[in-house]
Predict the 3D structure of the following.
Amino acid sequence: MQLEGLTVLVTGANRGIGAAFAAALADAGAAKVYAGARDPASVTDPRVVPVRLDVTDAAGVRALAEELGDVQLVVNNAGVGAPSAPLDIDVETARWEFDVNYFGTLAVSQAFAPVLARNGGGTLVNMLSVVSWIAMPHLANYSATKAAAWSLTNGLRVQLREQGTRVVGVHVGYVETDLTEGLQGDKIQASEVADALIAGLRADDDEVLVDEISRQVKAGLSNPPSVLYGEASAA
């Protein structure tokens, strides 16, 4: 895929991975990068175009799609997380995570799919995670939202093939962001995720496995739960 000259929308683009995506796409030669954020004033990169976008507001998302009729590449990046074990998380917090991570991705995909179709098909990118495949006990609900988003990504891949839209899933382990602050473990930089996406788009990859843990987990998914989660799960 040629990135030079493209018009792009990145959701959740005011910080973290989203800001890194927007910057990397601008560096790669995109003609215009719309940076979606609830507060456009929080977008500080002068090379991008801030737009107001709350992915949980389906009507607002549809209105923005009508306004941004030139978009050829959509990056669904907006996401939230609340570390908690499955029996400890507040149900309203769990719903909030699903509203952003799953239903937000769905709303943007539905609204912008016709825009991509009118512009020749284009590409839809969904920011997923290694926890799309394997749950982290301390991120159990977040893991569930990303598993749902992965399933959605696969469904979109099949349906949007008819209009010539490529659907790309991005998987990664811990990234140095606000979400992982306070969590223990090796973390990579958001810029590394962005670089991997750029390389994957240029190679026409359907899936971008950013780091070694993502590659290892995917390769080991045929293992029984006792291997993936420890002996306690075999009881």
Remarks:
- Helices lie at 16-27, 58-67, 91-118, 140-160, 190-202, 212-219, 225-229.
- Residues 7-234 form a domain with the Rossmann fold fold (CATH 3.40.50.720).
- The chain has one domain: 7-234.
- Residues 61 and 158 are 23 Å apart (CA to CA).
